[in-house]
Design brief:
The complex is a heterodimer of chains A (372) and B (273). Chain A is an alpha/beta fold and 372 residues long. Helix content of chain A is 38%, strand content 21%. In chain A, strand 7, helix 6 and strand 8 (161-167) form a beta-alpha-beta unit. The model of chain A has no long low-confidence stretch (mean pLDDT 98). Classes of the chains: A alpha/beta (372), B alpha/beta (273).
């Protein structure tokens, strides 16, 4: 049994999942992740580098991943903005990597030591162009450990960057955690098997994921952020452009069941659903319990995978519901997706705050008492 | 097979460069230098950013990475640091390396990581058709400097030296034999190496500044590129518009990945004790 911070649990999870390479630039409230890895990675032959900024840290992670390394970088708001350019590059070139964003108050330099969930839509749409995304949101220290492993596994399995969207509360709070010897399946990217001369680096298998060679293995392949065909070289064809962007979306969409996770509490007979994620879900869980004690039929719907949004799971809960309320530390981000998915079937309300304070159980309970 | 045949992806030709562009000559020098240095084709990665010059790796038969504008050195750092046994060569433009990528450039010099960087200096943003770059001389014309460039230009080699690069050289597309030799020496240097390759852009730079044809521009390289010995005999007035070519700086300094791995090894030793 250990007493760890969320940021520490993230490091333990990454190492358990086989992290080889970390590049980063210090920023509160994510810095402990870099500091711990600076001490731990060299001890096990791994690579830690502090780059000149977050743009280069993201780039270095992608370069390292192309040599076969399992990679991660961690940051917060201002740095997450800088990573967007090369996050898109990783997505388009199908280069696995994990990007941790321990959210703090924004916009701009904002409130470095206060929690926020203001980057939910940036995680979805931060890099330019049409792109799919996987983002996971832990609510506890223990879950941070497991979701970091899961983020690494999903990134390797689907050859895509995965965002671990933490918040300052989860990153900095300390909780007891048991780290088991056996962490279950650790996934490594598929490798090509044929003659290197015939290798087409972006020709997908039936699962839509292309096997990935590493630099230095004799495949001599080309990688570009320009739209490319299966050979990896640039293409000016409208057909190839459309097909590539569609495949990258299908690669995630068709594996929805494998990627999306939610947790629910008391949703079976709930009339009011509280949708909450990250540290806010802890307050929501308590408020729901208190509401139940007072005879209010409330339930908790907690997306663990934020993107893709757990639309099917939410829709399957709608039948007995009278109201859905989204609690989040921003002025209304995930609520936009909830409203879109609910599409008028029930009324949707929001409990929001962006003042750097947590949403308390009392605040949520008061709302539930009012709408019941 | 000669360097060109063995190291070029002939099925990717013809290239996208304009007639008279100097970049192809520089690419030829780079592949011949790779051959001269005896690098393993399967253990050599060529990395670039965005620009005409950055399209060259697509024609070179190695593991090749065409990245984002200005970031080639940051990607290359990840490759070299994760797998130090790979030879890493960066091909970049003057805008790519020194404007948007300027910060990565000086920090790569400072780290002295074993990467060889060829800056193809055509003094203009070629790919986007002729805006001024950090290497466009003051007063020269560009689409975004219609009344003459207000900015001053950098001296790439002095910058590299001051920032900590351990091998610095300059040559031109005209002096291609010398360029080949310098690039191969840069590759052999265990540390961060910079070779400035002066190249001509007759289409977007030469034409606007009335510098004549590609041949005229190469003749200008012949006249302007002087050896250190010749430069020593010229007065400052006579040196205006000229630049020194050849090996400009060599230094001994610990290489980044080697230093990091010596720490890794010392930690291993400690753990065994
Ligand atoms: C972030 C970003 N900003 C701007 C551009 C547009 N752009 C493409 S190439 C280029 C300049 C390239 O000039 P240089 O590096 O000197 O290379 P050259 O084309 O002259 O060889 C610019 C500004 C871009 N691709 N990405």
């Amino acid at each position: 049994m250990l007493l760890l911070q969320g940021n520490e649990a993230c490091v333990e999870g990454a190492l358990a999942a086989g992290l080889d390479f970390y590049a980063g630039y210090p920023i509160t409230p994510s810095t402990e992740i870099a500091e711990l890895l600076a001490a731990k990675l060299p001890r096990q032959g791994g690579s830690f580098i502090q780059m000149e900024d977050e743009i280069s840290a993201m780039a270095a992670v992608i370069g390292a991943s192309l040599t076969g390394a399992k990679t991660m970088t961690a940051t917060s708001g201002p740095g997450f903005s800088l990573k967007q350019e090369n996050l898109g590059y990783a997505m388009y070139t199908e280069t696995p990597c994990v990007v941790v964003n321990v959210q703090r108050g924004g916009p701009s330099t904002g409130q470095p030591t206060m929690p926020s969930q203001g980057d939910v839509m940036q995680a979805r749409w931060g890099t330019h162009g049409d792109h799919p995304v996987i983002a996971l949101s832990p609510s506890s220290v223990e879950e941070t450990f497991w979701l970091t492993i899961r983020a690494m596994n999903l990134s390797e399995k689907y050859r895509t960057p995965v965002i671990l969207l933490m918040d300052e509360v989860v990153g900095h709070m300390r909780e007891r955690i048991e780290i088991p010897q056996d962490i279950g399946e650790v996934i490594n990217r598929k490798k090509p098997t044929g003659d290197p001369k015939d290798y087409l680096p972006f020709k997908p298998d039936a699962d839509l994921v292309p096997p990935m060679a590493s630099f230095g293995e004799g495949y001599r392949f080309h990688v570009t952020g320009l739209t490319h065909d299966e050979s990896g070289f640039p293409s000016g064809s409208n057909k190839i452009t459309g097909e590539l962007i569609q495949r990258l979306h299908d690669k995630i969409d068709r594996n929805y069941a494998d990627i999306v996770q939610v947790e629910t509490e008391h949703m079976e007979d709930a009339e009011i659903a509280v949708v909450a994620y990250g540290s806010t879900a802890r307050s929501a869980s308590r408020a729901v319990k208190q509401a139940r004690e007072q005879g209010i039929k409330a339930g908790l719907f907690r997306p663990i995978t934020i993107w893709p949004f757990p639309a099917q799971e939410l829709k399957s809960c709608l039948a007995g519901l009278k109201h859905v309320v989204v609690a989040e530390m921003n002025l209304g981000q995930l609520i936009l997706e909830v409203e879109r998915q609910v599409a008028g079937a029930v009324s949707v309300g929001g409990i929001m705050r962006a003042d750097g304070e947590l949403i308390t159980p009392a605040q949520i309970l008061a709302y539930l008492q009012e709408v019941k | 097979m000669s360097g060109e045949d063995k190291y070029l992806r002939s099925n990717r030709l013809p290239h996208i460069l304009c007639p008279g562009c100097g970049h192809g000559i520089v690419m030829g020098a780079v592949v011949r230098a790779i051959e001269k240095a005896g690098l393993d084709q399967n253990k050599t990665v060529i990395v670039s950013g965005i620009g005409c010059s950055s399209r060259l790796p697509g024609y070179m038969d190695f593991d090749t990475l065409h990245t984002t504008h200005g970031r080639a050195l940051a990607f290359a750092t990840g490759i070299k640091f994760a797998k130090p046994e790979l030879n890493v060569i960066v091909v970049t433009g003057d805008g790519d390396a020194l404007a948007i990528g300027g910060n990565h450039f000086i920090h790569s010099c400072r780290r002295n990581i074993d990467i060889t960087t060829i800056v193809l200096n055509n003094r203009i943003y070629g790919m986007t058709s002729g805006q001024f770059s950090p290497m466009t001389p003051q007063g020269h014309l560009a689409t975004t400097a219609p009344f003459g460039n207000v900015d001053r230009d950098f001296d790439i080699c002095e910058l590299s030296k001051a920032a900590g690069a351990t091998y610095v050289a300059r040559s031109t597309a005209y002096h291609v034999a010398q360029l080949t030799d310098l690039v191969s020496k840069a590759i052999m240097n265990k540390g961060f190496s910079v070779v400035e390759a002066v190249s001509q852009c007759p289409t977007y730079y030469g034409r606007r500044n009335k510098m004549g044809s590609a041949v005229d521009m190469m003749n200008d390289q012949k006249a302007s590129g002087v050896t250190a010995a010749a430069a020593a005999k010229l007065t400052p007035e006579q040196m205006v518009g000229k630049y020194v070519i050849g090996e400009l700086h060599k230094a001994e300094a610990p290489e980044y990945t080697a230093r990091y791995h010596s720490i890794v090894d010392s930690l291993k030793d400690k753990e065994m004790k």
